[in-house]
Amino acid sequence: MRNSKGSLMRPDPLPYSASRPVVTPLSPSVVYASDTPDALDDQYEGRVHGYTYSREGHPNADVVAKRLDAMEGVSGGVVTSSGMAAVSTVLIGLLKAGDHVIGANQLYGRSLRLMAEDLPRLGIATTLADPSDVKAIEGAIRPETKMILVEVVSNPTLAVADITGLAKLCADSNILLVVDNTFTTPRGFRPFEHGADIVIHSITKLLAGHSDVMLGYAVARDPAINDRMRVFCVTTGMTPSPFDCWLAERGMLSFELRFDRAQETAALLADHLAEMPGIKRVIYPMRVDHPDADRASELLGSSGCNMVSFELSGGRAAANIFTREAEGLNFAPTLGDVGTTLSHPASSSHRALSADDRTALGLSEGFFRVSVGLEEPDALLQVFANAVRTATS
Ligand SMILES: *Cc1c(COP(=O)(O)O)cnc(C)c1O
């Protein structure tokens, strides 16, 4: 069988249909064929749009990028093979030897490692400072400081960065303000409306939402920066797979509903835990007893987030009973899944720290971070009530 535009081996890949699919087709094709060298010229010169080789770009990645661009109110974002690929694209793709970057002192673990180990190896100096204290960040600025990287709500103590103060500082000092918006999501917070220059997401978490795909995204307000990030990402091979993008798009279709539901339940859970004997303290940015409550309501409005942290009395022994008794809840190092997950920083994300350093951060053996999912709220509160009672009585 041979048709006009196929070889013997490759007939036209899709049978003709006068109607169209309502679901984005999955396009795993690595290569895209052109009609003539002139047609390819038109594509490379940007006179027409087309794909060539999937590391350079493909339809499924563009669909996800456009969706996130719209959510963040920008254009030209780059989808990457993981959230860390997005962080690396921003830090390694835009900085050069001799530059200096300031990072928040409580970033995602791998971002901290990139700052502490890999950037210095490449000749990029780094300093960590508290992003809720603009004076501390200002004190770390050097003539060669190019970038400040922060998360809006920190992991796992849920401190809220002074984004407004940092944005002003960055604008005055010609420094790029980079916001990792993974925890807060564009539903809870839109960094560009608060003066950010670059936004990063781990799509893996709430946006895709089903713990079955790893993907990231980086976007700048300045199109020239987006071009540099795209070239770096393509050159270093951090392009995402079409299937991952296809899955992420499907997850993102229900993201707003999932976020709202999870956030409402998180607020209920925080209040519920605060009333329970056996709980030493509860951290939730939208509660009036949160140290940054005013800033949280200024930045997040009523949106809040789906993360709640708390401290159980009884140390490691109680923590072991709690995770066993929390029926149906996975004790697993992730967040943003449809199911509620528990994380225990002392044995996972913060295990490399000394006990003293953990204490200084408030991360005792009884400290848990909860990513609230989509369970029926009353049933979830009941699971927590039972597990806390058994663990601490
Ligand atoms: C998970 C996460 C990342 C890294 O994303 P991956 O998709 O796991 O590579 C970066 N920043 C934050 C805040 C995260 O939670």
UniProtKB/TrEMBL annotation:
Presence of the UniProt keyword Transferase in the record: yes
GO cellular component term, pick one: cytoplasm
Top-rank lineage group of the source organism: Bacteria
UniProt xrefs under SUPFAM superfamilies: PLP-dependent transferases
Protein name: Aminotransferase class I/II-fold pyridoxal phosphate-dependent enzyme
One record GO biological process: transsulfuration
Modified sites of kind N6-(pyridoxal phosphate)lysine: 205
Gene3D superfamilies recorded: Aspartate Aminotransferase, domain 1, Type I PLP-dependent aspartate aminotransferase-like (Major domain)
Region described as Disordered: spans on this chain: 1-20
Keywords linked to the UniProt accession: Aminotransferase, Pyridoxal phosphate, Transferase
Family: Belongs to the trans-sulfuration enzymes family.
InterPro entries per UniProt: Cys/Met-Metab_PyrdxlP-dep_enz, PyrdxlP-dep_Trfase, PyrdxlP-dep_Trfase_major, PyrdxlP-dep_Trfase_small
